[in-house]
Amino acid sequence: MTVPSSSADRAVPDHVSGTALSLLCAVALKKALEEYVLPAFMRATGATVNVLLEPTGLLLQRIEAGTRPGIFVGTTGSLEASAVTDIFDLPSCKPVAKSGIGVAVPPEAHRPDIGSVDGLIGALTTARSVAYSRNGPSGIYFARLIRDLGIADQVNSRSTIVDQGPTAYALIDGRADIAIHQLSELMLVPEAAVIGPLPHPVQHYTEFSATLSRTALNDALASALFGFLSGPLAARAYRASGLQSP
């Protein structure tokens, strides 16, 4: 999908050019950043952005171990709950996107009706194996959801737990026939067939926010990228990659 640009997308200060910036970003934004946002920003500035895309928890571990990014994009509230609050300018924190949880099946597979909670229960309990994340926000929520629905034992007895990376890969290599993950992360595996979001009564959204480090507060490049991440091109890119406005 093409994300058109506009003059507003190219409104980057003239004095920002030819430098580099470090960005640590939650993997849920990977498709939008790699395919649209960062290429457009680097074309506009001539700058280099060194980006690391991982789950928020792993990014925080890196920061606690000494990594110092100019900008951090992770689940909203994660910095406030961490041991690294002194490194970032928390008042600069700005929501940029949110993601709902979706369901995918292998290519050419039967697509169960998940439009209702009963339909979702039927799909999950008749699946050969359901793949979901062990420690990401979608997996943590899904584990609680199946307990609340009373089907945890049935689903977990033959589930495929994915420690890292898109759960939809388990559809392609045959380990599972249903994958649960953030919609934007399911879309990282184009061979998988995303059949829709969880039904509205049991849907759960994860919001992602950008925050400047204290050392980057007066850095023109960091400020420009920070604005770009919440600008009109980025908003269109987020929508094209399965995310929503916060």
TrEMBL record:
Superkingdom of this protein's organism: Bacteria
Q: What is the protein name given in its UniProt record?
A: Molybdate transport system substrate-binding protein
